[in-house]
Amino acid sequence: MRKFGVLVIAAIAALVLSSCSSPAPEAKIKLPEKPPIETPVVNEADYADGYGGYIFRVGGGTVWCTINTTPGFALCEHRDVDVAYEIPEAPASCEGAWGYQARLWGFQPSEGQVADWFCSSGLYSDPEEAYSLPSGSKIVVGDITCFAAETVARCDNNQDQYLVLGADIFGFGN
């Protein structure tokens, strides 16, 4: 009987201690999927920057992207104060800022990944005059398609490689 009492006390103690443990970690934010073909497409000319590129903002300006037709890439960025994710460690070769700008090539570059962080020495473009890409719509320029999903930008190339950037989330598909 004494062993039974010890087991009951141990079970109650385990139950009490398990209820005091820290809560389960929050689920990670899910990367937005590639938009369906029938997603509304905006007129890319409305987003032309006058220098051969196309610039747009998502989520009121916290993230913005520039699509360049020559040589064919999208670069998405945001200010470092907007970052809520853990910034990855910069490679030794990067002497600028890391973890705020991401680039997606429309093709396999001679060096590096198709989609990856970009070592930066400042903002690539100025989002102040850029139009917002409405959430749930996309812009198609050359081999790059970018989609606005609330406050997150997702850009894909024709080989189904992608980059995703938002204040709380990032992702690359190589």
Could you please describe the fold and organization of this structure?
The protein is mainly β and 174 residues long. It has one domain (44-86, 95-173). 11% of the residues lie in helices and 29% in strands. It is built from one helix and eleven strands. It has one helix spanning 2-20, and strands at residues 53-58, 63-68, 73-77, 101-105, 115-117, 131-132, 138-141, 144-149, 152-157, 162-165, 170-173. The strands form two sheets. It has a six-stranded mixed sheet, with no helix packed on it. Strands 7-8-9-10-11 form a five-stranded antiparallel sheet, with no helix packed on it. Strand 1 (53-58) and strand 2 form a beta hairpin. It is globular, with a radius of gyration of 22 Å. It starts with a helix and ends with a strand. Mean pLDDT is 84; it is low at 1-27.
Structure summarized in a few sentences:
The chain is mainly beta and 174 residues long. Helices cover 11% and strands 29% of the residues.
Radius of gyration: 22 Å
Strand order of the largest sheet: 5-4-3-2-1-6
- What gap, in angstroms, lies between the N and C termini? 63 Å
| Overall pLDDT | 84
- Structural class, from helix and strand content? mainly beta
* Low-confidence parts: 1-27
